[in-house]
Structures are given as structure tokens and as C-alpha cells.
Amino acid sequence: MRLLARVTVLPKPLINDPQGVTVRQGLHHLGFDEVEDCRVGKYIELTLDSESESSGRNRVMEMCQRLLANGVIEDYALEVSALQEAPR
Amino acid sequence: MRLLARVTVLPKPLINDPQGVTVRQGLHHLGFDEVEDCRVGKYIELTLDSESESSGRNRVMEMCQRLLANGVIEDYALEVSALQEAPR
Amino acid sequence: MNVAVPSDEKLREVALTRAEYHSIVDQLGREPNDLELGMFGVLWSEHCSYKTSRPLLRRFPSGGERVLQGPGENAGVVDIGYGLAVAFKVESHNHPSAIEPYQGAATGVGGILRDVIAMGARPVALLDSLRFGPLPGSRRHLEGVVAGVGGYGNCMGIPTVGGEIYFDESYRGNPLVNAMCVGIVRQDQLKRAGTGRSGDSLILAGAPAGRDGIHAASFASLELDGSSEQRRPAVQVGNPFMEKCLLEACQEALDLEGVRAVQDLGAAGLTSAVAECAAKAEAGASIEIDRVPRRERGMTPYEVMLSESQERMLLIVEPGWEERVGAVFDRWDLEAVRIGSITGDGRLQIVERGVDVAAVPVRVLADGAPLRHPVSRAPEPAPTPSAPEPAEDAGATLVRLLGGPNLCSRRPVFRRYDHMVGNATLLPPGGDAAVLRVAGTPAALAMTIDGNGRYCRLDPLIGAEIAVCEAARNIVATGATPLAVTDCLNFGNPDRPEVFWQLERAVDGISRACEALGLPVVSGNVSLYNESEQGAIDPTPVIGMVGLLEDASRRVPQALQAEGDFVLLVGENAGGLEGSELAAREYGVQTGRPPVLDLLKEQAVQDLVLQASRQGLLRSAHDVAEGGLLVALAECCIWSGIGVRCSALQADGEVRQDAVFFGEAQSRFIVSATSHGLPELQSLARGLKVDLTLLGLAGGDRVEFDGQLSVPLSELRTAWDRGLEADA
Amino acid sequence: MRFGVVVFPGTWSDRDCGWVVEHVLGEELRYLWHKDRDLAGVDCVILPGGFSYGDYLRAGAIARFSPVMESVREFADGGGLVWGICNGFQILCEAGLLPGALVRNAGSEFRCQWSHLVCDDAGSAFSNRLSRGQVIRVPISHGEGNYQADPATLSRIEQGGQVVFRYCDETGRLADGANPNGSAHHIAGIRNERGNVLGMMPHPERCAEPELGGTDGRLLFESALHAARERVPA
Ligand SMILES: Nc1ncnc2c1ncn2[C@@H]1O[C@H](COP(=O)(O)OP(=O)(O)O)[C@@H](O)[C@H]1O
Ligand SMILES: [Mg+2]
User: Fold this and answer.
1) How far, in Å, from the CA of C450 to the mean position of ligand 2?
2) Do C118 and C158 contact (CB within 8 A), yes or no?
3) What mean pLDDT do residues C101-113 have?
């Protein structure tokens, strides 16, 4: 079955996040003073073929561990769902 | 109230996404041949103070339009939820 | 023949006039089909056909002993000795950068790199000439463009070593982004696009074609469903990593005997690349459109032929060499596909699944666009208001000018560009021209890019002459001899008689100055229709120039070198407020005449500086440009951290004091010399009949003119350093 | 001595490193293609600067899986000299040959400029010609050179004396303004425990000749020469 995986990657809480700081400053500069904290990471959307949702999830988790996230500085989260039809 | 906003930003569907292409190739290279398509964007987590969820959502949408996403080449999506306690 | 002319709407979508349509029908002897019309639309556009500017460009001097390739190829090429040549060209990416600053600038850099690569050269340096509306309004554009230039060049590993940035009302809504690339090529490896022969294979390498950059309102959109229109991205996203691979693979492929030529895909994509190769070879070409790799499903031949997807090259390969070429690209993990061949019948033929979908004479497509001759009319001269009384305190004026956005330090910009990669940068950005050594030789290349929209607005002829002279001065200041010019003509809509007049005058100005200085124009680019709601931009010819330093160790720095050195003004001690930064910024005077330029005097002054540098008489040299003598002198001090003590300065004749200090009289340099060198320098100047004025001595920590001004260097430095950050 | 310079598709300091090895030092040079496993018998592997695979996702993320890196890992495990410069440092961290990671510069901007470094460990294979506390001037050129690690890792490498270079001002002070990318503890370069693997963001290959503005970089190359001689007596 065809799956859509949505992976989010964020810097770990104890790791400095220079991009988050820059974005927060930028938002304050534009008058969005209500923003207290900001962290910037990556969002990755994958379409993949797999036997089942659970096997697909396992594969994507493996992808995260090996490539998509760097465990030393980043945490990741993922969601996998079935895709109805071929994309596009 | 204190809100958590989760913003995902992706290149628009027909825009060239060199990052996505390179990551897909990288995944294939590692043996994840089941990956058909890959798009890479940004993930941003914000904590903010707002009167209500709906006003917070509107503000974050504005932030997306003005800074977080580049409307010419990117699409964004957002989720806003109430935060129970102060983060960290 | 009874011609069924398409609707106005259809013609507008391919940007052709009714008359041009008739011309196509005449030359074809039939009506074009939709695909053919689309190809005519892009190739007969101003951008590709130069139908308005071509007659003017013929006025440029373009020959010379050292010229190996003048205008007309992907880049100009000039002999630098040792069996080597320098290939260079400038290109505008104004409109894309206005829509999306980062990607517009990035893909502009990518495009100019491919032009130089196509000559068989290895790019060694980039330069960028940028113009924006005033800060802070233009901050977003500035940031995006700078990030885009850096993002592409840095990733490619090509140093960005020079450029210029100006802020002016006239560019609000229509910023200018011109990028220049300089490459080095062994003369025996020089490639030209027009060397294909019938039977040669056409191999397309690099990125797959997407629906990028197909002119937003395109003819073929009529064939598509309504929603597909929006699905065509107006902006192209560059992939510098792929371009790096493409660069290396092309270099390796060019070592193969069977590779005759390489042609980049730029504006008008495959259509232009194939038509140009075929036209220059006086041949035809046949394309099997199904073989062209695609990024999207369901692309029509029209979309494939017009796609402007980046990072693609077309190789012209002798039959039998295809596999070896393929293997090279494979090594770099790039796709390289044989998509057709050069033919002998002079036609560009597109075949889809065995059926001809287009077949038109290449000559008509590539060179058939009727030239345009718009009306030219000089604008009414605006009255010149008289300047107010000079400010009391020249020191305070100096601090303000140095901290102003047009004169302040560009370090916040060029520190975001890798300007050192390649281990060649002897004089980095920040001075006049950058100087890069040529590996394996004692020589070095100097390079710069310069323009001045304000002078050109006041008089495009003189402004353009000054642009050429100023670029040459920047080269000469480093001790290098100017070799040749590449130019980028940024103008408004030429259908406005005043704009066309500006264009003509500017071209004449470039021609005159180049002739006087013995400089050929070997490449260039024209960008018209630079307009916003406020009207046309200031006429802005931008001059890129490359010079040769036979002995790299003889290069001259711009900063003062040691306390006790004599500091001198080369050229007339004259002043005039005409067209100056002072008049514009401090007095709000935007009209009048540009500074006076005497090309004979210019030559003599440049001669003096060159001869003196060759004889080792100069410790430093820096040209006097915007902001005049005092600003130039202050820069020499700021760069070195050494102050200067001068006696009071009065100009020859009756001249206001502010004009002496800040006037932009032309053909001048600030130089420094040791006490040993001074007498020789003076006699050299006498011999060449060039004025030489002793200003004072290097030393101390202030810029001082006895009784006239005294400013601490630290104050100047702070203002200069912070200028770009301030939202003034 | 034979230096090997690894070439990934997006590498560009390979030529600069190669230039110093061949033309400045007059030593033997081999380029090592990322798809090959053979290290050609080199005495020192340099992983040079560049954008190995475009540095999409994270700098060095994809490069670490290339065939040549398997051999580099074995070579390092056997005590071979491995020197990661700029992108090479990022790759060594991604590959786990060095601890920590390099993230986006503080301020999020690319920086190309001269920087001062103070040597904090003269024991590594690449700093043995320096003395502890010596200040050298070396250019940086990167957008992701901000060294970060979790607190435990940081204290471990500090205690182990693994920090070889720190950004400083010209007097050697770790002044606030003298940290061009926001690195933790001003870290510019670290070594592994054994001292045969060094990663650093600054570019010593850009300052090995006076006409390029400085020669301090040469000391690092000479350190490697010295270390190689010690290791394999001629
Ligand atoms: N956009 C830029 N990119 C790189 N270098 C720049 C840029 N703008 C200015 N510079 C550098 O800053 C220095 C000063 O620029 P400018 O004032 O325009 O010089 P000049 O008046 O001598 O032409 C030059 O060395 C120039 O190359
Ligand atoms: Mg100058």
C-alpha cells in the first residue's frame, strides 16, 4: 500500500537553536511580541510503498535514525497514514 | 492563554525541490528503495501568548504570511493548541 | 496568402506583435502551429533576439590583438598569455529577483556560471552589481539577494570577489541584480557553440525539465485545463549542488576529443540552446522530445521545449563518443541523455512518438526577428537648483557621507560570500578591483564591476563614459592593465522615446570611452523594460572589466602602508558638485550635469599610475570616485588604520571648499609613496603632464587638513562600518 | 609523505588542500574519490571543505555513508591520521568519529573572514608544531560551524583535553565578540581521544603562503608531517 509519512525534526531542548533565535527576533521585529519561544527544525514528507502501515512506520523510523535526524542534536516525530490514490 | 503553534512549511507542489531530490537519492542509496517521493521543508514550533485559540491562530497565520513561509514558492499549514503549563 | 491571424489575446501570450506574426508566416511560407508559435515567441523576445538593441550594440569596438572571442558566444574570451585565456560575461536577473529575491539572485549566478563553463573555462570568480530602492524599505530585497548570491556561489566553491551596491529611489520596485563570472581556459580547450556538424549527437545533461519559468501567460495554456495555469511555477529554484556536479562533469567531458561543444540552457531553455547551436553551425537539428527527462508527468512538448529549469547543459558530441560522455556524467550521478542530433537540412525539427510536431528553419527562428527601431527623443533638461551654502564643518559632513548607504563599508555583505576559496585571492573585496593569481604563472587577473545610475540619468553618454573609466581606474589602481569589457545595459521600456535615447547615448558613451582606452567589449547583456509604477529606472549601464597584472608581486594595495609615507593626489586638484553624492544626499539636488570627463586626460592619468606601479613607485593607490577626494582619502586611512596629516587644501581657481573636498571631478587617484620614490614619481608626472599634488603625510590617528578639519579615524571607521545596518 | 584528499561531488577545498600539499609542502598527493574504498596507501586523509552532497538536510549527513568513509573509519581506528576541515569536520561528527555536531551559525549567516584561534592542545597530530596558548590567524568560511554537544559530552571533551582550537581575539582571550559562529566554549576544532583524528571549521589550507595573507596554516600541515614521521619511522 502507498503511505504518506510526515516527519518533523527539532533540535533537542538542551541544544542551542540559532535559527529559532533568529526567527523569534525577526517575529519580534515585525511586532509579534507575543512569541515567547521558537524552535526551527525540518519537515519531511515522504510517499512510500509498504506492506502495511506498521511496517512502513518502522521503515520510516529507521530512515530517521540513519539519515533524516541526527540523534546527537535532534529529536524526531513521525506520522504515517495510508494514501488513497496515487499522488498528483 | 499560552498556546503552542506547530507550523509546517513545504515547497509548493510543482516547485523544484533540490533538497527533496537529494534526500530521496540518499535514502535510495541506503537501501530505502520504497521511497517514491520526498519533499523537504521547515518545521517551526512557537509558544505564544494570546487571548484565545482563534486569535492566536490568526496571528500565527499572519506570521506565516509575513515571515515564516515564502508565499511565492512555499505552502504552509498550522495547528494551534492550548498549552497546559509553562514550557520549561 | 490568406493568413488567419490568431487573436490579440493569443499573440499577447506569446509576446509577439501582429507584424511579427506576419513576418513569421512570410518567412515560413505557412502559418506556425502552436508549438512553433511558442518557440518563436521566446526566441523573438527581446531577451533572446536583441531585436531592439542589436543595431546599437554593433557600435561597440570589439576587436583587438588579445581578443579570442568577441560578443556573440556564451562569453567573451581574451588571451592572457601562457597559452591561457580569460572568459567572462555579465548577466542581469532583475525581474526574477524582484519576484523572489533569493532564488532570483541565486539562479542568476547559476546562469552566468553556465555561460562561462560553456566556453570550456573553469569559473574562478564571481562579482555582483546590485541596486535597490532606499533602505529600510528595500531591506528584504537586499537580504534575499545577498543570501541568494552567497547561497549559490558558496555552495559551488567559486569565490565572489567583488561587486557594488547602490540605493536609489529609482530602483524601488525594480531592483537590479547583475552577476558577472570570470573563468580561465586553456586556449587549446576553448569551445564554441557553433562547431557542430551534421550527424553529431545532442546530449542533454543535468536536471530534468519541470514546468519552471514557462512564461506565465503562455500560448499553450489554452490547451491546458484552467487550473494548470497556476500550477506553473513562476519562480525557478536553483540547485547549486547539481551545478557543481555539472561543472566538474563538463570539464571532464571536454577533455574527450569527441566533445565538440557545450551549450548552456538559459532563457528559453532547450529551444534556445538547440536553435543557437544549430544556427551557429549553419545546420539544423532534430529533437526526439520523448527522450527529454522530465520532473513532472504529463508535460506537453511545448512545456518541455520552453521549460527554463536550471542546471542543464547540452553537449554536441561526435557520433561514437556518446557512451564515453555518458560514463563521465554517470560518475557524477547526473543524467545525460541523447535527445537528438545535428542535421544538415537547416531545420529545427521536433519529433514526438515518431511524428513531427514542429519543423521550422533554424535561421528564421534564431535570426529572423525583424529589428525594431523605436523613436528616440532627448528628454527636456530639468532646471538645476543652486546648491545651498556649504556646511561649516567638513569633518561632520565626511562622517555622514562615509556612513551613508552608498559609501559605507560593504563588509556586512561580502563577508557572507566566500571570497577566498580557490587559494587565488591576492586582493580581496573591499578595495578597488579584486586581484586573483593565475596558478602556474607569475601573472594575476584584476576584476571589477561598476556603474553609476545618477551620472547616467544626468547624461547617459557621459555617465556611461565615466562608468568605463571608473572601472578602468579600479583595475589600474591595483597595478593591472585593463584588458576588456563586459557590459550590462539596464534600462526602462525602449518604446518610450526618452528611454531609447538614453540607451543610444549610453552605448555611444561606452563605445567612446572604450575606444579612447583601447578596450574591446567582448560580451554583455541587455535588460530592458525595467519599470515600476514610478516609471523607468535610471539608465544604468554596468561595466565589468578584467585586467592583467604580468607580475602578481607588483600588485598595489589600496590602503596606506606606513606612517611617514607621502600621500598625493594624482590628477587635477579641481572641484565641482555636479552629480555628486554630496549634492544628492546633503543638498537634495538630483538634477544638473554629471561631472566633466576628458578622455585624453583620463588616459594620461591612468598611464601615470600604471607606469609608476610597474616601477614600484607606489605604496598604495585608490581611485577617487563617489564622495570625492576626502572620502577616497578617508577610505585609504580606514583600511590601514593609519591617519593622515595634510596642509590646508585649496583648489586651483575659484572653487567652493565643499566642492574641493567632496566634488567628484574625474580622472583622479590617491596614491602614497616613500621619500625615495617621490622624486621619480614627480618626474614621471611632469613627463606625462599629469598634475600631482602633495596632500600630506601618512601618520597619526586622525584625518587632518590644517585649519580645515580634523576627525578621529575611529569616528570615521565606526560610521563607515555601521552604515549598512542603519536604516537611513 | 603521502596525503590523500577525499573528493565528494560537492567538495571544493580539495584543490586548495591539494595545492598546499603539492606546491607548498612538496609532498605526495592522491585524490580519493568518494565511491572508492581504496585509500591508496596514504599516510594522512584530509576531508576537505565544500558542500559534499549540497549539504541538504544537514551538512555531511549523506556523505558519511559513502564507500570511502568506511575505509576512513577503519583507517582512523587503526591510528591513521584523519583531518576534517570545515565540511570534513561536519562529516566526521555525522559519522560519529568525533563527538558533537555543527549547527547553523548564531545569527544564521554565512561567514567568510579571518579568525584568531588559540591552541589548547599541542598534543594532537595536527597541532604538534604549535605550543599551548599560541594564537594563530586562519580564515573561516561556513554557514554551519556552530559546534554544539550535550553538556555531558562537552565536559568529557574538555576534561580529556580534546579541544584543540578555540576562537579568540588577537591576544588569545575568549572574548564575546571573538566567537564568529556561536560555538559552545568557543570551540573551533576538536580531536578524538587518541589524537589521530582532528576536525576543525577554519581553513588552514587558505593561509599557507604569505601572498594569501598568512602562513599559520602551514604549521598544521607540518604538524601532520611530523606526526606521520613519528608513526612510521623511515
Ligand atoms: N555586492 C558586492 N559583492 C561583493 N563585493 C562588493 C559588493 N559591493 C561592494 N563590494 C566590494 O566593496 C568594495 C567597495 O565597493 P565600491 O564602493 O562600489 O567600490 P568602487 O567605488 O571602488 O567601485 C569593492 O571592493 C567591491 O568589490
Ligand atoms: Mg574604486
Assistant:
1) 9
2) no
3) 96
What are the pLDDT digits (tens) for A30-71? 999 999 999 999 999 999 999 999 999 999 999 999 999 999
Q: Which of C494, C383, C526, A10 is nearest to B44 (CA)?
A: A10
Distance CA C150, CA C154 (A): 5
Closest CA to C279 of C343, C185, C229: C343
The Å distance, Cα C48 to ligand 1 centre, comes to 30
- The yes-or-no verdict on residue C728 having pLDDT over 70 is no
Rg (CA), chain A: 16
Strand ranges, E, within D75-193:
81-85, 101-103, 111-119, 135-142, 146-148, 163-168, 187-191
* Chain C residues within 8 A of B70 when measuring between CB atoms: 100, 102
* pLDDT value of position C389: 81
What is the number of other CB atoms lying within 10 angstroms of the CB of residue D54?
Answer: 25
Reading the block at residue C147, the C-alpha cell is: 543570501
pLDDT above 50: residue D205: yes
pLDDT, chain C, mean: 93
* Residue C625 clears pLDDT 70, i.e. is over it: yes
* Residue C429 CB less than 6 A away from ligand 1: yes
> Are β-strands C284-288 and C336-343 bridged in parallel, bridged antiparallel, or unpaired?
antiparallel
pLDDT at C192: 87
- Opening angle at CA A88, ends A82 and B5, nearest 5: 60
Q: Beta strand C347-352 with C284-288: parallel, antiparallel or unpaired?
A: parallel
- Grid coordinates representing D98 are 568525533
Q: Are C595 and C466 in contact (CB under 8 A)?
A: yes
Confidence of residue C221 (pLDDT cuts 50, 70, 90): very low
Chains that touch C (3 or more CB pairs under 8 A): B, D
Give the Cα separation of C109 and C111 in Å (integer): 5
Question: Closest Cα of chain B to A76: distance in Å?
Answer: 11
Q: Does D86 qualify as catalytic in the annotation? A: yes
Helix axes C18-28, C34-43, angle to 10 degrees: 120
Does the pLDDT of residue D108 top 60, yes or no? yes
pLDDT of residue C475: 98
* Peptide linkage before C240 cis (omega within 30 of 0): no
pLDDT at C232: 58
| The three grid cell numbers given for residue C121, joined into one nine-digit string | 573555462
Distances (CA, A) of C172 to A80, C140, C341, C389, C453: 47, 12, 46, 31, 13
Q: What is the pLDDT of residue C267?
A: 85
Catalytic residue among D185, D186, D203, D207: D203
State the Cα–Cα distance between residues C518 and C512, nearest whole angstrom: 10
Of C242-251, C650-659, C685-694, the range with the lowest mean pLDDT is C650-659
The closest alpha carbon to C659, from C581, C602, C727, belongs to C581
Interface pTM, i.e. ipTM: 0.92
Pairwise CA distance, residues D41 & C340, whole Å: 45
The H or E element containing residue D70 is helix D67-77
d(CA D226, CA C594): 63
Residue C727's pLDDT is what? 58
Contacts of C55 (CB under 8 A, 6+ apart): C371, C373
The residue type found at C59 is: R
**Starting at the edge strand that comes first in sequence, how are the strands of the sheet with C336-343 ordered?**
C259-264, C312-317, C201-206, C336-343, C284-288, C347-352, C355-361
Nearest to C339 by CA among C306, C315, C362, C359: C315
pLDDT number for residue C726: 63
pLDDT of residue A25 exceeding 70, the answer is yes
Could you tell me the CA-to-CA distances from D90 to C8, C157, C163, D119 in Å, in that order? Answer: 58, 17, 31, 20
Three-state SS letters, A4-29: EEEEEEEECCCCCCHHHHHHHHHHHH
- The pLDDT value recorded for residue C380 is 87
